[in-house]
Amino acid sequence: MKKRISMLILITIAVTGSMFADVPQDELWKNKRLYLGGSLGLGPIFGSDGTALGGSLNPLQIDWQIARFLSLGTGLNLYFGPQTKHTVLKQTDPLSGEMETYSGVETHIIFPLLVKYTYRPSIFSFEFGGGIYASPTTMSTMVERTNENGYTTAESYGKNLFSIENNNPFGFIVNTNFGVKVGQGILFLDVRYLRDFSEVTFKFNDAKIGNHLWNMLGFNIGYKFGFFNSR
């Protein structure tokens, strides 16, 4: 039994050694099966009533390198944007003369599925591809209070007065990515265009106030690290 265990250990060491011997140490970063990382950034949100600046936070990005030049990507992406032109004015205190302006802030929770062409010459990394996503949308309420002297303060409102009808829209993504080797990982700039297939309907206190189609160009900076040698 001890001889069998010893032989198994020796075989494992030999196989592992051959894997590392086949790929130069400074090339290991671009010969991985799995890449994990994250990114954050900003970008314009396009709408029929104007353009607003939105933000994104992608705390989990997963890329599975299924072949030398082909990968599958997914993850958890959060996109934030002001709901422009959908505000409601309300006189709440006639004695003080304060006006309250309510506005809804969108958060899109995007679960993408991407197919990407990957190319990693020298110390650089290039990716291009696209796919689809599912995107549940949540709302939070902001309020601006203006007194009789014209002084305005803004804050989050305790009760969420906005809601969404026809939630969980699907959409598509077109993605391009440029990276460079930093340490044993990849520092990258990610540019992607996202657009829902259908509109969602916004409500304020259960009254419909408008429709919106998520339509955004995002610029993100991030870092990802590879695991499991591919050869």
Mind explaining what this structure looks like?
The protein is mostly beta strands and 231 residues long. The chain has one domain: Porin (Beta Barrel). The protein is 9% helix and 70% strand. The protein is built from 1 helix and 13 strands. The strands form 2 sheets. Strands 1-2-3-4-5-9-10-13 form an 8-stranded antiparallel β-barrel. Strand 2 and strand 3 form a beta hairpin. About 6% of the residues have low confidence.
TL;DR of this structure?
This protein is mainly β. The protein is 9% helix and 70% strand. The protein has one helix and 13 strands.
- SSE succession: HEEEEEEEEEEEEE
The tally of strands reads 13
Portion in strands: over 45%
User: How is the main sheet built?
Assistant: 8 strands, antiparallel, barrel
Descriptive key words:
Porin, single chain, elongated, 231 residues, 70% strand, mainly beta, eight-stranded antiparallel β-barrel, three-stranded antiparallel β-sheet
Write the layout of secondary structure elements.
Layout: H1 2-22, E1 32-47, E2 50-67, E3 70-93, E4 98-119, E5 124-134, E6 137-146, E7 152-156, E8 162-165, E9 170-182, E10 185-196, E11 200-204, E12 207-212, E13 215-229
Antiparallel strand pairs: 1-2, 1-13, 2-3, 3-4, 4-5, 4-6, 5-9, 6-7, 8-11, 9-10, 10-13, 11-12
